[in-house]
Amino acid sequence: MENIAVVTGASSGIGAATARRLAAEGFHVVAVARRADRLDALVKEIGSGATAVECDVTSDESVARLAETVSGLGTLTLLVNNAGGARGADPVSAGSVDDWQWMYDVNVLGTLRVTKALLPALEASGAGTIVTIGSTASFVVYEGGGGYTAAKHAQTALVGTLRLELSGKPVRVIEVDPGMVRTDEFALNRFDGDQSKADAVYAGVKEPLIADDIADIVAFAATRPHHVNIDRLVVRPIAQAAQHKVHREK
Ligand SMILES: NC(=O)c1ccc[n+]([C@@H]2O[C@H](COP(=O)([O-])OP(=O)(O)OC[C@H]3O[C@@H](n4cnc5c(N)ncnc54)[C@H](OP(=O)(O)O)[C@@H]3O)[C@@H](O)[C@H]2O)c1
């Protein structure tokens, strides 16, 4: 029986690309998200190497059901905490409490819930790995990004704390922090479905990262010999030398 990898937020973008890639690496992938139709299509495409589990990471009951399903599948060695996202670009002075709440719930408490639920199985495997998708927003702040950067900073605090607390246990804790990745939904969700605002994020950027680039990094980090722990990997497109320094072609 293959090793199991759980990927949250697998219905689109980075999560879907990671699920495909990890299946190609030989994992049996458990693809997790709320949109079951998309997961079913992904699992069909991957074939026998994947299982879809509809799950809302903001719900205790839903995550408990996920853990139960996973326990019946085999040996869990990898968890990719990817479900997350941004909502809104308001300045702090006009920040939407609902948006901030949503970002904290999904990015931070979602990571907490799923990690807690699956940690016993990862530990029992004797060689577990947790990869969490943070962001460059996990360590810088920018105007209009208060809610997202606060949530991603908090997610990083969770990851760093967990690594310390698992010292001596057979579970390594890895964080991948992408810069600008062009995915279909991330910016669209951030700007409440406004396609022109979403497109403006990537305007003139010759080659933003794509989801497959991050899937590649996750697969690399997760397939090193188990004593090798890549604490944190920051990855940006060459056009983004820093958060505010984005080269745009005219
Ligand atoms: N794109 C970027 O530029 C970028 C840069 C740095 C970091 N990131 C991070 O990378 C991760 C993925 O981003 P992406 O660009 O691939 O975005 P995306 O395409 O919007 O994907 C977000 C995923 O999260 C899932 N999700 C949202 N709420 C959920 C919930 N309550 N329960 C379960 N799943 C939930 C969504 O699935 P459902 O809606 O079907 O539930 C979707 O599959 C996020 O953590 C994001 O913060 C993205």
Automatic annotation (TrEMBL):
Residue stretches in coiled coil: none
A GO term for molecular function: oxidoreductase activity, acting on the CH-OH group of donors, NAD or NADP as acceptor
Keywords for this protein: Oxidoreductase
Signal peptide positions on this chain: none
Top-level taxon: Bacteria
Similarity comment text for this entry: Belongs to the short-chain dehydrogenases/reductases (SDR) family.
Full protein name: NADP-dependent 3-hydroxy acid dehydrogenase YdfG
Organism: Actinoplanes lutulentus
